[in-house]
Input
Amino acid sequence: MRETILPRPRRSGCPINLTLEQLGDRWSLIVIRDIMFGNRRTYGELLAQSEEGIASNILADRLKRLTAAGLLTRRPDPGHRQRGIYSLTEAAIQLVPLLAHMAAWGRRHTRPSKELSVRAELLEKGGASLWNAFMDELRHLHLGAPRPARSVLDELQRAYERAVARRR
Amino acid sequence: MRETILPRPRRSGCPINLTLEQLGDRWSLIVIRDIMFGNRRTYGELLAQSEEGIASNILADRLKRLTAAGLLTRRPDPGHRQRGIYSLTEAAIQLVPLLAHMAAWGRRHTRPSKELSVRAELLEKGGASLWNAFMDELRHLHLGAPRPARSVLDELQRAYERAVARRR
DNA sequence: TCGCTCTACTTGCATATTGCAAGTAATCTA
DNA sequence: TAGATTACTTGCAATATGCAAGTAGAGCGA
Output
């Protein structure tokens, strides 16, 4: 049974605080990151391919919350009626610059693994024009907008694969 | 007695994840925001002037954690030996663009109060050059760098006060 | 149509984190 | 030296997280 999620009262009207109230926990942005950069669209994909090993109940909870908050939408898979396909909303797509900055900060001030920071580096070097191209691509993949010429997702994926290959 | 904080094992080497492991909770960035934008430097100031009403034990815990993580430093107040004065480190100062993006996202996708989003608006419109000026000012206030000509803190504060005055 | 497998979640329970209220000891002030 | 402040702690209830197991469809092959 789908339980209702009781909304917490807002702590203040500060926009930083309100962003934190929606996304300030240890998993919400991980889920969005995986849908966004990993193009994982279903519960099963998100669970099985989770780099951080998210627990199944937490994933279910976050998918519910993020959908309720207007960051994700869920539509049934026509070929498999039990399955839901999750898409980013425009609000979630506009988190691209935020995630890019988080990646850039993490690259500088934590000790990330080499392979996993290749994407972050590319994202940082590409700057706003790359982010915009990526957002256009996400609008195509998630909102049905026309397919743009450039696929940033492919670029990131290829860079990552080169890094993994170089490793050996 | 100061308890030791047991470090959690890292979930993955992804830089976004590592940033989240340090800052992905409901209070850490609020504390940094208040030190950064509100220039609150002591426990008492942070507690009493907290817009969101942080609990005293959570504040104490976060000050410890953030200090251990290298985002804050604590030095004793020469005029009041019990009191600690907290300063941002360079790593924390480099969160300015991240907080600016959080503020911008919150302004667009949540329902912030008008007065409190004035600063966010200014921060967004000012862009990277404003952020850099602000970071220089923070390096002066927290790291002993020379005082820059421009005070972004003053500009933000005046804009906020004008907004509050306009309200009446 | 029967049974098998797969999948999208739930559920139960232990542990960790949060939040409130109260407490304490060190410091400052008169 | 007495009283007020301040910088935290502590106790406890409520909530969130994490692990392991369970369940109710749905798809599929015979």
